[in-house]
Amino acid sequence: MASQIHHHSKQFILIVLLSSLFYFTVDSTSRGGWSPISNPNKPIFVVIGKFAVSEHNTEAKTNLKFVNVVKGDIEVAVGAGTEYRLVIAAKNGGVIGNYKVLVLETGGTTKYLSLFSFKVNSALIGGWTPITNLKNSTIVSVGKYAISEHNIQAKTTLEFNSVVKGDTQVVAGIKYRLVIAAKDGIVVGNYEAIVLDIPWIKFRKLFSFTKL
């Protein structure tokens, strides 16, 4: 009996903590409509994301492992609770995919969570999207990585100059298709590189590197 009381006591503390976090996360302007989450790494959203994965594993007899919350929205309905519409990255074996979940939080002092939907987020998986800011630090970093990795693989001495243009595609991570200007000796040429970047596990891989 003592251990059972202690267990419920810990649950109550967690619920109070989540309630406090939520109070400081949502302002009055978000009531009555969906409001984008500005920081998906906040503890309350991570807890909701982990709950969704755990509940889905129980219901569908799967073994997904939570990675992180990619993005999401919340809606506060007076008297009905709070809805969380999240895009979650989760690992299925060795493959990381994105899943769209809908979780409802209800209750007063004691909060209850219910999973309403859990599905592969096909809206995020699709065609190539042009990169609008080629000087973005991540884009430049991926471009420099492609040159460095090609030099190692092909035993060349290309020097990164700039990213000329590029596109991104959301898969189990982000795929970059970049046209990179690089110097070979005194000659500057353009090269197309395709790189897969999975930032939440700090993984990058060069798939192709071709002179244009």
Descriptive report:
This protein has 212 residues and is an alpha+beta fold. The chain contains 3 helices and 10 strands; from the N terminus they run αβαβββββαββββ. The strands form 2 sheets. A 5-stranded antiparallel β-sheet has the order 1-2-3-4-5. Strands 6-7-8-9-10 form a 5-stranded antiparallel β-sheet. The longest helix has 24 residues, at 2-25.
Short characterization:
Mean pLDDT is 79; it is low at 1-31.
SSE arrangement:
Layout lengths: L1 H24 L9 E2 L6 H18 L4 E13 L3 E12 L2 E12 L5 E9 L8 E2 L6 H18 L4 E13 L1 E12 L2 E12 L4 E9 L1
Antiparallel strand pairs: 1-2, 2-3, 3-4, 4-5, 6-7, 7-8, 8-9, 9-10
How much of the sequence lies in strands comes to over 45%
Q: State the helical fraction.
A: 25-40%
Could you report the average pLDDT, rounded to the nearest whole number?
79
**Low-pLDDT residue spans:** 1-31
Along the chain, the helix and strand elements come as HEHEEEEEHEEEE
Apparent shape: elongated
Which structural traits does this protein have?
28% helix; Nuclear Transport Factor 2, Chain: A; single chain; alpha+beta; 10 strands; disordered N terminus; five-stranded antiparallel beta sheet; 212 residues; 2 domains
